[in-house]
Amino acid sequence: MDEEVAGIYARESSYLDRYVQIGVASGRVLSVSFPEQSADGADSEHPILEEIFEYLEGLEEVPFEDVQVGLTVPTDQRAVLETVRTIPYGENVGVTALARMTPELDPEEDEDLILVRTALDENPAPILIPDHRIRDAPSAAPPAIEQKLRSLEGL
């Protein structure tokens, strides 16, 4: 299937007990969500869904490095989310460490720690931007999904 085709793609995950749904445009993932039902007319076949399901099956560590995410968030939040993408499979960090890792943020500044938490809470693409690897912060994924993703990676 051509990755350039825009649309909504969804497939049911028995591991998550939900659908995994992605929104794609111009070869970029705009969103990842976990609805109870897929969107009407959603196609179940897309290469990025294949990668996500390989990850969910736990058969291999899928880094999602090749997946382009179209981040339509403020620049300072984008910096945080791009840093989150560098945290390896099976590892986690705290909010303070994430602030320290993110260019131009100061982990001693409350405002910067709030920015980190806000960016994680508003993450448009959980799994691809693995906010579940931040141990003391909100995830954009529902709590039950976050816990399953953490469990999958032994966190």
Folded structure, characterized:
This protein is globular. Helices cover 32% and strands 14% of the residues. It has a domain at 75-152: Winged helix-like DNA-binding domain superfamily/Winged helix DNA-binding domain (Arc Repressor Mutant, subunit A). Strand 2 (18-25) and strand 3 form a beta hairpin. The mean pLDDT is 93. A three-stranded antiparallel beta sheet has the order 1-2-3, covered by helices on one side. The protein has 155 residues and is an alpha+beta fold. The protein has helices at residues 47-56, 75-84, 95-101, 110-121, 143-152; strands at residues 7-13, 18-25, 28-33.
Largest beta sheet: strand ordering: 1-2-3
Number of strands: 3
Whole-number mean pLDDT: 93
CATH architecture of the domain at 75-152: Orthogonal Bundle
Summarize the helix and strand pattern as letters. Answer: EEEHHHHH
Tell me the β content: 5-15%
The CATH homologous superfamily of the domain at 75-152 corresponds to Winged helix-like DNA-binding domain superfamily/Winged helix DNA-binding domain
How many distinct helices?
5
- Helix fraction, binned, reads 25-40%
Note poorly predicted spans.
Answer: none
Structural class: alpha+beta
Radius of gyration: 15 Å
- State the separation between the terminal residues, measured CA to CA: 34 Å
CATH class of the domain at 75-152: Mainly Alpha
Which of globular, elongated, flat, extended, rod-shaped describes the shape?
globular
Query: What name does the CATH topology of the domain at 75-152 carry?
Result: Arc Repressor Mutant, subunit A
Largest sheet: 3 strands, antiparallel
